[in-house]
């Protein structure tokens, strides 16, 4: 799979595995129905979350829809999930619209979320997942339609919501300028013709969800923390992950920061990755709750 964003999402998996808030995850287990659930994951990318939920024994049957706007990611998802299942001896049967992973039917749906919601609610789902996604979309505009996808008593689990702090260590004199501009770039981003997220998405979810009638029942930090081990190596493919993050900062700041200052900062950070010296921390939050009208049930 040669698509760089596919490589990024695959490399991000171990970072997310460490970061996901386990207390919120345990609370999620208590909100799942007794029957095999119907799950919708929006902005699902490669499908690493469905693999994780099977590995972590949260799900083993039911129907899981991966919705994403990027057709290349969904094509790669078939290949990635097939290889993942093969490594675990899990039977995989290709389907016209996805895959059967043991008793779990995975459906791949290519759609821009706003357009998908404008078309009206689909079959109600027991669980709505958005992972590393609500910080790249216009939450107030999308939330009512998203929550309408839930069956009565259904649950939402919104994870890895960026919340206002990007940290690199060791300190660099350019940090305040570069990282301040990087945060600001998130607040006026536009993608697919729509506002695309904000730098304080995580903290703002609490009031957005309360106002939508679906207050948060459980929440906790899910910070990414990436550093090399005592062997002087980053785990898994996390050096590649760090390089991709630095390229993302570079792309976001092309017209926002003095080019020489940015080049100096990036060169120092890339050297630190090569030397396994860079530490990267992103503050994020996970939240869990129920469909409107069911929060206190
Ligand atoms: C940061 S990635 C997260 C992917 C996946 N949840 C993960 O963490 O591995 C955000 C994903 O949202 C998708 N996306 C962004 N805007 C979207 C939109 N408006 N509608 C549907 N998908 C969108 C992108 O294609 C990308 O796959």
Description:
The protein starts with a helix and ends in a 7-residue tail after the last strand. It has 10 helices and 12 strands. The strands form 2 sheets. Strands 1, 2, 3, 4, 5, 6, 7, 10, 11 and 12 form a 10-stranded mixed beta sheet that branches. It has a two-stranded antiparallel sheet with strand order 8-9. It has a domain of 203 residues: Vaccinia Virus protein VP39 (Rossmann fold), CATH 3.40.50.150. It has 297 residues and is an alpha/beta fold. It binds S-adenosylmethionine. The site of S-adenosylmethionine has 21 residues, from helix 1 and helix 5.
SSE topology sketch:
Layout: H1 4-19, H2 22-31, E1 38-42, H3 48-55, E2 61-68, H4 71-87, E3 92-95, E4 98-101, E5 103-110, H5 113-118, E6 125-131, H6 139-147, E7 150-169, H7 175-187, E8 190-191, E9 194-195, H8 201-211, E10 216-221, E11 224-226, H9 238-253, H10 259-274, E12 279-290
The chain binds S-adenosylmethionine.
